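Lecture notes, unit on protein representations.

Consider one protein chain, 412 amino acids long.
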Amino acid sequence: MQVVYPRCCGLDVHKRSVVACVLLTREDGTVERAVRTFGTMTAELLALDDWLARLGVAHVALESTGIYWRPVFNLLEDEARTILLVNPQHLKRAPGRKTDVRDSEWLADPLRHGLLRPSFIPPAPIRELRELTRYRKALVQERTQEANRLHKVLETANLKLGVVAADVLGVSGRQMLAALLAGEEDPAALADLARGRLRAKLPALRRALEGRVQPHHRTLIARILAHIDFLEESVAQVQEEIDRCLGPYAAAVELLQTIPGVGATAAATIVSEIGVDTGRFPTAAQLASWAGLCPGNKQSAGKRLSGKPTKGDTWLKAALGEVAWSLARSRGSYLAAQYHRLARRRGKHKAAMAVAHSVLVIAYHLLQTGRPYSDLGAGYFDRLGAERIQHHHVKRLQQLGYEVALTRKEVA
């Protein structure tokens, strides 16, 4: 088999150790193997870097083992060195003798012959932005969990505020909860704190606020509200850092927001997950496959066994799913029309997945061309199949006993 990389290394990464196997191919075709074990502290990883540099290793392969590969990747990343992060599923071994040294050699040997397919690793600035956007989403999810806990405590205290008020944590709800914590128990006094359109529901509020509040309920409500305030402040601070990191990519974020349903948060997530350079994905179909937004491919003996999508990038899928559900509640755009058209035939969830796929394909082409999105319009599908729609309805009317004569309306 042809040798593509004569000097290469395979790394078997663990929490406390890294086993490195270097394969050096001589001119006569013989292979010299060098194996060493390093720790995972910064000084020990720098020693690994120096050792690879002395041996002239320009290509390194390691498996994506949880989070442990990241410090190794960050310290070994160099312009003069190519690091391939490999999906463990692509390197499944037959059962048998297994050691760390054998694992590292198993990584180095396919790399030596150019048989490994690297995973997508964005540049360092995009990776930093990705960590911030993912942490922001985690904070938002924690805030949602705390809000749900607040609803649960109010229910156990026989306070049905969530039945009347759409947002318990709105201005009116906050004032009512503050008065409740201060010791106010009169339902009329609490209901009178309502503001805006909620004042039209004062009778219902008085009934909803007639509860049985115990001291431990007040303790729980106070702690939950304090935690929510802390999370909201944390989200704001992380968002400031995200905005700072998005400075060089402001044009791409603005371009993505021309897509219906894609706001600032979704655009930032798309940029942080796939970057702004689409050259890593030759086609939009390959990007959709990487993201897990297309049917899977599992065949055997000429039969299709499963079309279940792959796991893909769960963070990107979640963001595009939110975009798809927002389009499901709207009208007047091509993507909204696509959702409603598919939902009637295939169901809401499959329609949302299809719209998320379309949004990702559109984002790919926008980043590739640098041109804003041009919507085809909500009537695109009607124009596309006008003759088919006409034939269908005429046939249905004829089946119901009508004689149909069509006259085309003159366009003014």
